[in-house]
Amino acid sequence: MSDTIIIKEKPLTYSAAQAARDMSGTATPAGEKGSRVSEGPSGSKPEKTLSRRNIILYGTLIVVALYYLLPLYVMVVTSMKGMPEIRLGNIFAPPMEVTFEPWVKAWSEACTGLNCDGLSRGFLNSVQILVPSVILSIIIASVNGYALANWKFKGGELFFTILIVGAFIPYQVMIYPIVIMLREIGLYGSLTGLVIVHTIFGMPILTLLFRNYFASMPEELFKAARVDGAGFWQIYFRIMLPMSLPIFVVAIILQVTGIWNDFLFGVIFTKPDLYPMTVQLNNIVNSTQGVIEYNVNMAATILTGLVPLSVYFVSGKLFVRGIAAGAVKG
Amino acid sequence: MAVTARPARWHRNLSAKIAAIPMIATALVVFVGGTAWTVLYSFTNSKLLPRQKFVGLDQYERLWGSAKWIISIQNLAIYGAFSLVFALVVGFLLAALLDQKIRFEDTFRTIFLYPFALSFIVTGLAWQWILNPDFGVQAVVRGMGFESFTFDPLYNPDIVIYGVLIAGLWHETGLIMCLMLAGLRGIDEDIWKAARVDGIPVWKTYLFIVIPMMRGIFVTAVVLIASGIIKVYDLIVAQTGGGPGISSEVPAKYVYDAMFLSQNLGQGFAASTMMLLSVIIVVVPWAYLEFGGKARRV
Amino acid sequence: MVRKSILTVLMSAAAMPFCMSAQATDLEVTHWWTSGGEAAAVAEFAKAFDATGNHWVDGAIAGSGGTARPIMISRITGGDPMGATQFNHGRQAEELVEAGLMRDLTDIAEAGKWREVVNPPSLLDSCTLDGKIYCVPVNIHSQQWLWLNNDVFKKAGLEVPKDWNEFVAAAPKLEEAGIVPLAMGQQPWQTSLAFQVLLVAVAGPDIYNKVYGDKDAELAGSDALAPVFEAAARARDMSKKSNVQSWNDATNMVITGKAAGQIMGDWAQGEFQMAGQTAGKEYSCLPGLGMNEVIQTGGDAFYFPKVDDAAITEAQGVLANVMMAPDTQVAFNLKKGSLPVRGDVDLTAANDCMRKGLDILAKGNVIATPDQLMSADSVTQINDLFVEFFNDPSITAKDVQTRFAAIVADAE
């Protein structure tokens, strides 16, 4: 990669190797790392004043943000109206009479047959499915990506190509073969089976994500660590992991969203006592006969989206410039 | 090979290979096995349950004789081309803007990303309302006095697919932005410093230095977007139901409708085999270029 | 609380005769009834079943077609079936029965004399394959209704139409008044529902049976049917300005007076009732479009997958009896807004339109639904054809008739 870049190759290489050595030995003091992270550098120099540049920058961001917020506005406003008001059909008008009834109903009252406890019913099940599935799929995929990018082995690319093709297969087509496979190994209908299914379908994109990211990292770091005698797992945990926080965030965003919003696998591969929250969401929004309550639909959708949303917000703090970049300076 | 072979070569390969066992198993058993199964049953007349009653190419003849399938492919081409270009460009631009050390980065990033968290079923409905000529944007603009204003993409068979595109981009660009942002954050600060020292304009630095360095991220983004395009289904169902008429049908919907509405599994498998075949035609040459020649290149 | 316990006692009393053992068994039941009224109706089944000392484990999954069906089939073929499941009866479940995955209920049906009590008998025929009964029909939903907003006609200075022809004649005046004559959602099943309702109304039940039942393609393409397709073309013109997707949005156009009428099944009544309207007052209903007063007796049915567990097998039998019991039938169908499958129960709480349906049923003017007569594949092809036709004015009545006849010819 260094050949594409200008000047300063020597110091860069040197300090990268240095950094790797630092890390495989004693870690840099935490405080120092932290301070570097928070002042993580970016593109060009920021200007403090209300300059032309800032107006354009923030102006653009705000206009784009408005486009993104418009549907959310419609959804929130609708969720706070009563059904008679919704029948009037003015979707942009703020509610004449604000009601939180739909929210209460979506969370704790909407019925499914006997069970009238709304989305809250499946919440814990969803968490129970989400946590192991996200962790397992990211661990496996990141190790895959690392092995493919840094420890090339024969046949690796072939399997990787198959995975990439697999990323394009619509899930529904694979339902029957997977049902048969899980039935044969006796995991059909269990949480373990479901976690495996999520790991399998997350694997293509995640592996690609990690492979390409690891491959773009300075090779010198890896080399230096090898010189120091670090092994497969040592390099993974001491160097690759800390340097790739942003890409882990992207992986978390992808998996948390995908698995949390998954409905199909959740019902096919488990039983009613393990049904995720999305089953209830689907039941609320996807009813084909009977009265369709748009306000409850909207409230339920926003409520369901809150979990991934909070994960985005919290994990977004990890969107920092790679620690290696900070270390390189030192 | 990148690293000069040190201690023992087999030892190094062994660790990596053990670590890659889940991947190899998935690739072979699930993807190759599942695909072979699908292709096999595409030659049968399976209805509700997979059955081995072979009928040769009948399913394929019916597939290519279907107006719905042809329209599906055309729609996919239009939707795919626009979706790919816009998602990449807009995603990158937004990421670059957010990477300017701005205030409230967390807030903006979350705003751009939040659509990704919401299920398609209801967001499709929200967009269906917004684009509805009787009570959406068109009605509002007309209410402001522009009586001749017309904006009803979902009710015009010629442009309905663009109406879907508006909602599709809204949903996915946030994720691409995040991916790009992660890529930008992986670019060494020294490169920016060097570029500044040399007096290279910012846009040139992006175009000729940063983007080439982010090639891996772009490849990931392209695969992510493209696989999403091929699989687009929920959005269509929620927003247009394939209509007006059959003017916004897409291949994935054709597959599901055949499998689960028509209960004609064989037809669904034939359609998905055609989809898979076209993916292989694109991906395999790419993989060959990617891995065939040079060693460690992203 | 008190009321509930009284009800439970009543229910258990009603169900007692079928409760052979006191052993409590958990029985998982999957179905796609999830909206407010539907859920309340299911609760009646569950309550009655729980009263037998067993326990109903609810597995509701909304969305009949693309969503719930693959899940149910996966569970059954995955070797981990539910205790009972709702399924479209008629042709659609045949394969599961043929594959030996479903339990034969003939002995239970004979003990309960279903043959004698189920009315119309065609409902039980749909559950029967090779002389054996495999499902329990639980209700009747009819599709042949034209729903009208009375007020709209009065304002335009018109009489409320009594049949389809009068409705068509009123259309120009309605349009002048800025009202969409016919509201129609643009989902494929809605457009083809409108078509086959028109077919029965215009051409009569005999021709319907020959076309859908005997797959008489020659008749389908003949001049005898031409008026049906012209009526469909007329309906297309009348619904030109109807810009909605879902059926209930279309119903809402009628409720709010944006549109004058809608062709839809009896479930549309739920929307009128939710909007606080009364049959005969704010809205009218014309079964069979007022032309041929016939209703299609579609409906829902429950199947019982074969299981090894003896306790579950027994609980299945209990549930089948509970569903067919007169008390449960009344309680369930009043909540569901559908008609009971037994002719020997009393429905005093039924409203105007339901009563009209009951009368027609009593007269025996019933026909089967397309689902019962044709394979899902053919039904979907017809759906696709009509959604295309209703959205593309360049397709003539003649064209669509030719294509329709071709689908009928290919149907198995």
Automatic annotation (TrEMBL), chain A:
Q: Does the keyword Transport apply?
A: yes
Q: Does the keyword NAD apply?
A: no
Main localization category: membrane
Q: Which domain of life is it from?
A: Bacteria
Q: Where are the transmembrane segments?
A: 55-76, 129-149, 158-179, 185-214, 235-260, 296-314
Please name the SUPFAM superfamilies in this protein's record.
Answer: MetI-like (SSF161098)
Q: How does it sit in the membrane?
A: Multi-pass membrane protein
Which keywords does this chain's UniProt record carry? Membrane, Transmembrane, Transmembrane helix, Transport
Q: Which GO terms describe its biological process?
A: transmembrane transport
Its Gene Ontology cellular component terms are: plasma membrane
**Residues forming coiled coils:** none
**What is the name of this protein?**
Carbohydrate ABC transporter membrane protein 2, CUT1 family
Species of provenance: Roseibium suaedae
Task: Kindly list the organism's lineage.
Answer: Bacteria, Pseudomonadati, Pseudomonadota, Alphaproteobacteria, Hyphomicrobiales
From TrEMBL, chain B:
- Entry's transmembrane regions: 21-43, 76-98, 110-130, 159-184, 205-230, 269-289
Domain of life of the native organism = Bacteria
Which Pfam families does this entry report, sorted A to Z? BPD_transp_1 (PF00528)
The record gives the membrane topology as: Multi-pass membrane protein
**Keywords assigned by UniProt, alphabetized:** Cell membrane, Membrane, Transmembrane, Transmembrane helix, Transport
GO cellular-component terms in the record? plasma membrane
Task: Describe the location of the ABC transmembrane type-1 domain by residue ranges.
Answer: 73-288
Quote the subcellular location field of this record: Cell membrane
Q: Output the InterPro entries linked to this UniProt entry.
A: ABC_transporter_permease (IPR051393), MetI-like (IPR000515), MetI-like_sf (IPR035906)
User: An example of a Gene Ontology BP annotation on this entry?
Assistant: transmembrane transport
Protein family membership:
Belongs to the binding-protein-dependent transport system permease family.
Q: What is this protein called?
A: Carbohydrate ABC transporter membrane protein 1, CUT1 family
Natural source organism:
Roseibium suaedae
Q: What is the lineage of its organism?
A: Bacteria, Pseudomonadati, Pseudomonadota, Alphaproteobacteria, Hyphomicrobiales
From TrEMBL, chain C:
The stretch of residues making up the signal peptide is 1-24
Task: Supply the Pfam families for this chain.
Answer: SBP_bac_1
Q: Where in the cell is it found?
A: Periplasm
Q: Which Gene3D superfamilies match?
A: Periplasmic binding protein-like II
Cellular component GO terms, alphabetical: periplasmic space
**Entry keyword annotation includes Secreted:** no
Which UniProt keyword terms apply here? Periplasm, Signal, Sugar transport, Transport
**InterPro entries the record matches:** Bact_solute-bd_prot1, SBP
What functional role does this protein have? Part of a binding-protein-dependent transport system for a sugar.
What is the similarity comment for this entry?
A: Belongs to the bacterial solute-binding protein 1 family.
This protein is called what? Probable sugar-binding periplasmic protein
Name the lineage.
Bacteria, Pseudomonadati, Pseudomonadota, Alphaproteobacteria, Hyphomicrobiales
